[in-house]
Design brief:
Elements (H helix, E strand, L loop, with lengths): L5 E7 L6 H12 L6 E7 L6 H11 L3 E5 L6 H10 L5 E4 L11 H8 L5 E5 L7 H19 L11 E4 H4 L12 H7 L4 E5 L15 H19 L3 H29 L9 H33 L19
Parallel strand pairs: 1-2, 1-4, 2-3, 5-7
Antiparallel strand pairs: 4-6, 5-6
């Protein structure tokens, strides 16, 4: 079998009823794409017969690859494992619950051919519960767009298309799979968005609730910090530390003014406590910044990590960046 051009990555968790239907839809819709393909299903610790169904499908179709986790590690781990075990030039993740429509895969791949590196699906007409899914998702997407500077309508849509080279330097943790377009944009990738079909769930149960929104916000804080301060953490901690020390001195000066000009004793005002507290916080932040600088330098120098990414060179020996 020729090497695949397209790799589908499909995390699976308790979707035994949907898998045969999904496989049939993949065969039907991928026939229109004139390129070899593979599908990597990642069984994320399913407790039903999902793995059995996958082995049956894989036995009759060599293009179907199956990765089985020892337990449930989450969607991000499933996506990372699928990418690691894929070999296509283009990688398309999608859900196994039939809410993503495989017929949209061709549209995303064709959009990549226009020169884009990432094409993100947008569930414009979303068939989910209003208060528990749609409203929290809308709020989260707005916050993510403002904080990251990458404007997309739907970060939570699993159906996306990536060029493999874009995913090479991106490591996924927590709920970070939804932030891949942000990482890619920060690396200089061309990112766009297309409306895709979204179907209501007909089999199985949703694995996500409103609590996921709070996890996403916490991961977003991590992403923003890693992007802005990863190589120079002293800028963040140092700024907070200097600000706290300045507040400490301001409280001290005002405390002295009250003492000698307005005859207010130190025990009549909280300023001595505030002055000491701000000073200690400032010194602590400065020390944390210095410690973070040492950790970052150790990280880059001991592992040979580069602080930049080369996409292409001209009249120079090719680099390892692909």
């Amino acid at each position: 079998m020729s090497a695949p051009y397209l790799s589908l990555v499909i995390p699976v968790f308790n979707e035994e009823e949907n898998l045969p239907i999904l496989y049939g839809k993949l065969l039907e819709n991928l026939a229109a794409i004139d390129a070899p393909w593979e599908a990597i299903f990642v069984d994320d610790g399913s407790t039903d017969n999902s793995f059995l169904e996958l082995t049956k499908i894989a036995a009759k179709d060599q293009r179907i690859k199956v990765v089985k986790f020892s337990r449930n590690f989450g969607q991000t781990a499933g996506l990372a494992a699928g990418i690691d075990h894929s070999s296509g030039e283009v990688i398309v993740p999608l859900d196994a619950d039939l809410q993503n429509d495989p017929k949209d895969i061709q549209m995303l791949v064709q959009k990549l051919a226009e020169g884009y590196d990432v094409v993100s699906g947008w569930r414009k007409d979303r068939h989910d519960a209003l208060f528990s899914r749609k409203i929290p998702s809308w709020i989260a997407n707005k916050i993510i767009s403002v904080v990251s500077g990458v404007s997309l309508h739907d970060y939570g849509c699993s159906l996306k298309a990536y060029r493999r080279k874009i995913l090479k330097d991106i490591r996924l943790y927590g709920e970070m799979h939804r932030f891949v377009p942000i990482y890619a944009s920060w690396l200089g990738a061309r990112v766009t968005e297309l409306p895709v079909t979204h179907h209501p769930r007909t089999h199985g149960q949703s694995k996500y609730g409103i609590s996921r929104t709070f996890k996403v916000v916490l991961d977003l804080i991590t992403v923003k910090f890693m992007a802005s301060c990863f190589t120079k953490p002293i800028y963040l901690f140092g700024s907070i530390g200097i600000g706290a020390i300045l507040l400490s001195w301001a409280a001290f000066v005002w405390m002295v003014i009250l003492k000698f000009w307005y005859h207010t004793t130190f025990i009549q005002t909280p300023l001595p406590v505030l002055s000491a507290m701000f000073f200690l916080v400032g010194v602590q932040c400065l020390l944390m910044g210095l410690l973070s600088e040492m950790l970052m330098r150790t990280y880059h120098e001991s592992q040979g990590k580069s602080i930049y990414r080369v996409d292409e060179v001209v009249n120079l020996p090719p680099t390892d960046e692909k």
